[in-house]
Amino acid sequence: MTIQATSFDKSKIKVVLLEGIHPSAEKVFQNAGYSNIVTATKSLPQDELYSTLADARFLGIRSRTQVTPELLQHAPKLAGIGCFCIGTNQVDLKATEVKGIPVFNAPFANTRSVAELVLGEMILLLRGIPGKNAAAHRGEWMKSAVNSFETRGKILGIVGYGHIGTQIGILAENLGMRVQFFDIESKLALGNARAADSFLQLLETSDIVTFHVPETDLTKNMMDATAFKHLRKGAILINASRGTVVEIDSLAEALRNGDVSGAAIDVFPKEPKSNQEEFVSPLREFDNVILTPHVGGSTVEAQANIGIEVSEKLVRYSDNGSTLSTVNFPEVALPSHVGKHRICHIHHNEPGILAKINDVFSSNNVNISAQYLQTSDSVGYVVTDIDQASSDKAFEALKLIPGTIRTRILY
Fold it and tell me: Which of 173, 271, 337, 406 does the annotation list as catalytic?
């Protein structure tokens, strides 16, 4: 796709990339002609964050920076947000939608990294390595085959059979494991995996249970005290999805009682805001628990791929107007029309606005060569290609249409 020169000088478009986003992201922006790029290796204190975003057009974050309605008030020029990770729960998606700010993420770029971490944790926990390792560090020698098992023949229960869950299932089958899964939606089973009849049935019949679900009302405290009562005695529990999925106090109690033989937790209900803040959790007392600081997708390869994927989406939206794969906004996939001029109009989804937009073009003798419209429950997004240079009069008239959120001339 050929990207035409934008009407707005790219050197004036400020891009802010926080939390140590991989340099591949900055390179994508630079290759696309953007030079006003601000980077930071961590999240910023509130005052500094607000001042940095005062004139920013695009924001890139990972999981620590919280995009709230209050933050958006301090970022009046913000046009797009990139979450350089899988999740977007750190962003108020409704608040950004009604302000006409599409949010993009990388839902698939680090699936392999998470799958490999979970697979490694399964093997280590089945062999009892975390406990033996901790004992050896204390000078204790625990050479024994008691409670040390192979993966072959064990039943793996996957809760959430999406992109990560399916990869884990395939890798586990290659180790000789038997795979079952539970998902709220009907999913095609890969390999020899089979769907469990219910979540509780999966808990009752699995040697290892691993969670790969999004954060929703349905998944919050999904693994609570009641669910632990259904877990097979001595099973292993792994959570590399969202911190709210597993009730940590209930897990700690199950570990004390020996109901759970081991666990690996990568995400927590409350996580430190920086590497300097102490990590506090009742799970720290257990030698048979692997605790990792939310690094499921933190491999060099995954972070580089995420940097490229999300920044390319932001550049495409900035240069072309395309919102394909946004998580909170009407999706429009747009071709590039060489020799045409493109105007984007974002508005509240109300009857009659498209007619008013076209009336503006008609009354200003502007011929429409192509037009694209998509709506969500709250927002409408119209992209119009015209045959001649947009007049200032027409553009100003578009901004005055009742219900308009924002307009921009791309080229």
Answer: 271
Whether 100 contacts 77, CB under 8 Å: no
The b/e string for 46-71 (b: 16+ C-beta within 10 A; e otherwise) is: eeebeebbeebbbbbbbbbbebeeeb
- Domains 1-110+300-329 and 338-411 agree in fold: no
pLDDT tens digit sequence for 21-41: 999 999 999 999 999 999 999
Annotated catalytic residue, options 22, 212, 242, 345: 242
- Cα dihedral sign, 83-84-85-90: negative
Active site residue 294: yes
Annotate 105-171 with DSSP letters as a single string. --SSTTHHHHHHHHHHHHHHHHTTHHHHHHHHHTT------TT---STTPEEEEES-SHHHHHHHHH
- Say whether 64 is catalytic: no
Read off the pLDDT of residues 209-252 as tens digits, 9 standing for 90 and up: 999 999 899 999 999 999 999 999 999 999 999 999 999 999 99
CATH of 111-291, one of 2.30.42.10, 3.40.630.30, 3.40.50.740, 3.40.50.720: 3.40.50.720
- Which H helix or E strand runs over 202? helix 199-205
